[in-house]
Amino acid sequence: xxxxxxxxxxxxxxxxxGIKIINENGEENLSLRKVAAACDVSHAAPYAxxxxxxxxxxxxxxxxxDRFMDKLLKAIEGKPTADAAIIAMGRAYVTxxxxxxxxxxxxxxxxxxxxxxxxxKEYKGDYPPFLLLRRMYLLHLExxxxxxxxxxxxxxxxxxWSIVHGMASIACMKGVKSSFNWNDIDERLLT
Amino acid sequence: xxxxxxxxxxxxxxxxxGIKIINENGEENLSLRKVAAACDVSHAAPYAxxxxxxxxxxxxxxxxxDRFMDKLLKAIEGKPTADAAIIAMGRAYVTxxxxxxxxxxxxxxxxxxxxxxxxxKEYKGDYPPFLLLRRMYLLHLExxxxxxxxxxxxxxxxxxWSIVHGMASIACMKGVKSSFNWNDIDERLLT
DNA sequence: GGTACAATCTTGACAATGTAAAGATACTAG
DNA sequence: CTAGTATCTTTACATTGTCAAGATTGTACC
Lengths: 191, 191
Prior knowledge:
Two copies of one chain form a homodimer. Chain A is mostly helical. Chain A has two domains: about 10-50, Arc Repressor Mutant, subunit A (Orthogonal Bundle), CATH 1.10.10; about 60-190, Tetracycline Repressor, domain 2 (Orthogonal Bundle), CATH 1.10.357. Helix content of chain A is about 60%, strand content about 0%. Chain A has eight helices and no strands. Chain A is elongated. The mean pLDDT of chain A is about 85. The interface of A and B includes residues 114, 154 and 179 of A. The structure holds a DNA duplex.
């Protein structure tokens, strides 16, 4: 691989550079030209790998979501019951965004989680964290011998997700000063 | 008021034009120059009323938040108990953003609710919808003769707000297709 | 090996945008 | 009526996303 003209793996380099910029300078400072410059490449080079800026951003989102899923999976690892796993997952959910408010804004700021899901076929159109939650929830029903209609299940799932996602959202609000310690969620908060 | 040079009430006109653009073309199409053009004014005219684009946006946010508060206040109007008022408020909260997803993104997209609060001194640094919720919650404790520590109160308040705000957030996600009818929230969802 | 083709990257250009500086116009206090 | 202030225009510039034309490199095929 000649280092001179062809970069080698510019696509991934652009994604990494994008994440770095978001981490260090916030999303508002992410521009195609800066990402390109960070990779020592001309300002139009990204167009060989991404249709437009949106497509690069979606690729970055998919990357961040993968890291997010890693945290969630690691959190439920080895938990004895589904209940414990759900609690741990909720904790990890809020903690992840509490530590990285920029990621929350970046992932959900435009409220459009579909696009970067379509890229990862593996996800089959459903939001991975939600799929994981549903799996744990069904396990919870099984473990406790509970029977619920599909509608009841959906309502409870939405409720759990709403609490956790809402807490993450509120925790990320710069204006909300609360004595609440988001990194150590009280169990009374989770069901 | 001479119509030729001085506009008369350009400040409010810019805010109104900004809201109109967001409604019709989405937030991504809101630019200072377009707002100025919509008011038949040169592209630098807004700088006589706003320090920068951010300040105009904050003014618009304050305006939208006022409308939001109107809906919430109208929702709890005439409710017999605090419990009923809280349910009604939650419903109105989700309904408002379910009908106007663009507003949700606009208000919370950058997760910064402080700035436009500082402009409305009246709010005294707390988020108005949250203040209203707290008032209703304290009324609820009083009506039912309940005693809670401040910490317990805070946790319950955050929990209620998280559910409602989280539901609004999820309802606004374009990717989430759910059989759930956000405009007619099931009571099982609210406490 | 050499040649056509595709992938990748560069250069140059353009329009939209935020913003600053300098000046024109209208309003207002004295 | 005059000086000053608020408001608005004009001009200018840097940043940005995007496109088009061309240069460079890798690859498939003979």
